[in-house]
Amino acid sequence: MKLRLLLTCFLLLAATGCTQLLLRQTCLGLSTNVNYCLAPLPVQAKELKENPDAPKPQRAPKAPATTPAPTPKNQSQTQKVSIEINGKRHELLSQLELDGQRLSVVGLAPMGQPLFDVSFDGNQLISEQSVLLGDNFRAEYLIALLQLIYWPEQELNAALSGGQVSEQSCPQRRCRILTSPEDGGIVHISYSHQEPWLATIILEMPSAGMKLKITPLA
């Protein structure tokens, strides 16, 4: 699976090297039956709501969400990221920046070596990464997972085809799940705090044998 290859590639680069600048697609498959097009950035989403006649990205048709939710505000956060794939655990550091112009993520090895620099401006997704990663590092999956974690359900569901994100009761402070009628639960996310940006987050994708833990550091 492409998502598994993406996460595996986080683990391969432990030193700097030549980089390449790549323009990535913004629509992808999360399962056999579920497709996702990256959702707008905060200011863009607000403008679309206030001006419905404004041009907007092509999305798969989706019924309007029934529960309104706030759009993410500007954020700057250093995170410790732990990735477990089929029982093998690895760690990296990331710096996430979000404002009305772009969402960017810089990945660093534990000793500080740069791994990748991904930027999404609401239309184009650009990835600067080591040539050692090749085409197996798919930046669109990284941004999609971050949006599934931090974006409001209303905006996620408008960008999904074949699946739906919803809140789920759980022992943690907050949980959400991505489901489809054919696949059942595809992505499970739990939060240690009601506010996602303050929470330690665990994302599980059973079909990929993957568990992702994000701990905010600053």
Which properties best describe this structure?
218 residues, 3-stranded antiparallel beta sheet, 17% helix, globular
Q: How are helices and strands ordered from N to C?
A: HEEEHEEEEEHHEEEEEE
Query: What about the largest sheet?
Result: 11 strands, antiparallel
Unreliable residue runs: 10-16, 45-50, 54-69
Helix content: 10-25%
Portion in beta strands:
35-45%
Instruction: Count the E strands.
Output: 14
Structural class based on helices, strands and sheet pairing: alpha+beta
Straight-line N-to-C gap: 33 Å
Total DSSP helices: 4
The geometry reads as globular
Work out the radius of gyration.
Answer: 17 Å
Q: What's the pLDDT, averaged over the residues?
A: 80
Order of strands across the biggest sheet? 1-8-7-6-5-4-14-13-12-11-10
Would you spell out the secondary-structure blueprint of this structure?
Blueprint: H1 2-9, E1 19-24, E2 27-29, E3 35-37, H2 42-50, E4 75-85, E5 88-98, E6 103-108, E7 114-120, E8 125-130, H3 139-150, H4 153-159, E9 160-161, E10 164-167, E11 174-180, E12 184-191, E13 201-205, E14 210-216
Antiparallel strand pairs: 1-8, 2-3, 3-9, 4-5, 4-14, 5-6, 6-7, 7-8, 10-11, 11-12, 12-13, 13-14
